[in-house]
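INFO batch 0412 | record 1 of 1 | parsing
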Amino acid sequence: MARYIGPVCRLCRREENKLFLKGERCYTEKCAFERRAYAPGQHGANRRRKASDYGEQLREKQKVKRIYGLLERQFRLYYAKASRMKGVTGENLLQLLERRLDNTVYRLGFATNRAEARQFILHKHVLVDGRKVNVPSFLVKPGQLVEVKEKSRAVAKITEALAGVDRRGVPKWLELDKAAFKGKVLSTPSREDITMQIREQLIVELYSK
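INFO prediction complete | emitting tokens
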């Protein structure tokens, strides 16, 4: 399956949840989900069919994939890795996804959404511990420093994103030095740090069949 490049507001409406895929627009009255909070398509507004257990599990998996911008094979690999780790598989999965560099750059406020963060990383605007890292799936560790390259600090999209970081907030497992365009990974993200409405147990049930 190729990466989805269509209108992302349809994805929020399909999942019946605001996934914050369009950055600042999601916080305004222009947000498509706020205006049409029902599934896309000709009969979306009239759809009232109750989903089966499998349907709910599948939708939850699709929702998390779309939040983090992953393909099916990538997501399965993360699940396989999470299942081999000690602890609760569902929480391990979310922890791995949160530790991705593209998500970390977004959470620190250097980008308004994860797709934009991926683009910044691929274009080598981001440094980890002083070294260029252009791999969005790179997993950050406690103690590492994530920063915007000095020459890239004048990029309009980055400065605009940082200007709105107070509204989005920075999770407790990260520390932002806004003036220096730097952020530090304080700890491994906990389940309480993930505020999105995610029922990870449904994903575990789906892959356990």
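INFO post-check: The beta strands are 126-128, 131-132, 145-148, 174-177, 182-185.
INFO record closed
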